């Protein structure tokens, strides 16, 4: 009895995650069309996504490593433009379609559950050029057609689907979607319009998928920014709550409950954002909801008001982030706060008790050094030890958590920091300026996670 209390469910999905533009490379090969991520990384200060860590050409080797690690699941994304180079159905790239068949088939053969994200930060450039991407209502149909295409092609092989990765992050960093605007105010307006169009597109896909593919699970992958108050005063606690509502919960409410929360509309109203929402749109949101929830969770963040005299409470520009002296932070300022994960999972369970949660990202970034063929990433191991233990407690608390997919299976291109910021269990020998041989090495955390999976949890 004591022992079973310590275990995770038998079919728990011990996984690991990546995304297409960050891991695949082959950015300009085999008929792939250009994505916003390709253009964005090319313009950045580090390497671009044309090579990344070249999983496209290292597929067999990487799948062998997944097998060795013992993964029960692999979360990856399909590159929209590798399959549909123009973003719409005008051209289908057979080589791209076959690449994902091969990937999925190999995973299944190796008893690794594929978890597929349809759109992870790599929007088709052709659609940005055609109609400013998600800002236009036309984007809804093109996403629907893409999702429909994927489900027809791979729907009988893949049970777990995620529609859009971190829509709530893209809205706050609209350059990730390639959104164009003439000024800051217009950019904010366009980002919010894009937000709603993504919600509508996703709702139509949820509805279609749940009607036609009865056996699949489909949901969003939302970034849950768990906000902590600077102190125990009510005003501070209120700020943290309002930030969670504004950054994360609104999107979960739309995806799971099919309603746009009033608090979200109020904030947009304060910002003079106009949303063109018809009765039919509201009905679409109501009818198309997710049947599970993907959550990207890395850390807690502590917030404080900038203006102590702010009387009205929540104002979107009036907060700053502070560090908690009790916590350790990555070089990029992300905390190691395992109890925060248990708290976050409980919050989700309180809000959506009927919904199963899949942790789709969680991880510790570092520069990681290769020394004599070894990588001693103790801080990452410490991070995962704490988080896996708290995850177990959250399950014991009654939260329906079906799996854990750390970011990332292998070192890959960070969204803003190239290869400087690494997350993988597998090290890839390259840097921002030299591709070298892209040799793979197992980090110490690889063996740690291998043992976690083997023991179905931490070994006590
Ligand atoms: C999430 C993204 C991932 C990943 C991760 C780490 O927001 O879904 O794509 O990159 O964060 O972020 P970064 O690469 O900025 O360290």
From TrEMBL:
Keyword annotations of the record: Glycosidase, Hydrolase
This entry's Gene Ontology molecular function terms read:
6-phospho-beta-glucosidase activity
The name this protein goes by in its record: 6-phospho-beta-glucosidase
Please name the GO terms of the biological process aspect recorded for this protein, alphabetically: carbohydrate catabolic process
- Ranges annotated as spanning the membrane: none
Pfam families in the cross-refs: Glyco_hydro_1 (PF00232)
Q: Which PANTHER family match?
A: ARYL-PHOSPHO-BETA-D-GLUCOSIDASE BGLC (PTHR10353:SF136), GLYCOSYL HYDROLASE (PTHR10353)
Q: What is the lineage of its organism?
A: Bacteria, Bacillati, Bacillota, Bacilli, Lactobacillales
Enzyme Commission (EC) number:
3.2.1.86
What SUPFAM superfamilies does the annotation carry?
A: (Trans)glycosidases
Native organism is Companilactobacillus kimchii
């Amino acid at each position: 009895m004591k022992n079973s209390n310590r275990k995770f469910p038998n079919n728990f999905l011990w996984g690991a995650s990546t995304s297409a533009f960050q891991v695949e490379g082959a950015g300009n090969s085999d008929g792939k069309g250009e994505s916003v991520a390709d253009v964005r990384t090319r313009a950045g200060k580090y390497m671009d996504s044309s090579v990344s860590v070249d999983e496209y050409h290292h597929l067999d080797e990487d799948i062998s490593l997944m097998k060795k690690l013992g993964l029960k699941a692999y979360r990856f994304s399909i590159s929209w433009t590798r399959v549909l180079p123009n973003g719409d159905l005008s051209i289908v790239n057979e080589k791209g379609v076959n690449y994902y068949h091969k990937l999925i088939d190999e995973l299944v053969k190796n008893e690794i559950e594929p978890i597929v994200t349809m759109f992870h930060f790599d929007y088709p450039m052709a659609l940005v050029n055609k109609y400013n991407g998600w800002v236009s209502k036309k984007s809804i149909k093109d996403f629907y057609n893409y999702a429909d295409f994927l489900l027809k092609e791979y729907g009988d092989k893949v049970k777990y689907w995620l529609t859009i990765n971190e829509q709530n992050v893209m809205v706050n960093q609209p350059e990730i979607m390639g959104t164009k605007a003439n000024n800051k105010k217009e950019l904010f307006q366009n980002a919010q319009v894009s937000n709603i169009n993504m919600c509508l597109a996703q709702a139509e896909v949820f509805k279609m998928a749940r009607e036609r593919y009865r056996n699949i699970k489909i949901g969003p992958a939302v970034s849950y920014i768990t906000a902590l108050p600077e102190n125990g005063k009510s005003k501070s606690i209120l700020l943290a709550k309002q930030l969670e509502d504004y950054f994360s919960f609104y999107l979960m409410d739309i995806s799971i409950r099919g309603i746009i929360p009033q608090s979200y509309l109020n904030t947009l109203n304060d910002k003079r954002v106009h949303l063109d929402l018809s009765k039919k749109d509201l009905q679409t949101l109501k009818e198309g909801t997710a049947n599970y929830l993907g959550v990207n969770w890395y850390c807690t963040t502590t917030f404080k008001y900038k203006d102590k005299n702010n009387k009205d409470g929540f104002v979107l520009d009036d907060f700053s982030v502070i560090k908690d002296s009790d916590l350790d932070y990555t070089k990029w300022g992300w905390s190691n706060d395992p109890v925060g994960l248990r708290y976050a999972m409980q919050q989700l369970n309180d809000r959506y008790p009927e919904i199963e949660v899949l942790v789709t990202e969680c991880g510790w970034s570092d520069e990681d050094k290769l020394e004599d063929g070894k990588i001693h990433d103790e801080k990452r191991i410490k991070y995962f030890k704490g988080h896996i233990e708290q995850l177990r407690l959250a399950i014991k608390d009654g939260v329906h958590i079906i799996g854990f997919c750390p970011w990332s299976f292998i070192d890959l291109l960070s969204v803003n920091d190239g290869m400087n910021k690494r997350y993988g269990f597998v090290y890839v020998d390259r840097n921002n300026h030299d591709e070298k041989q892209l040799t793979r090495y197992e980090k110490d955390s690889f063996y740690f996670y291998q043992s976690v999976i083997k023991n179905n949890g931490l070994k006590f």
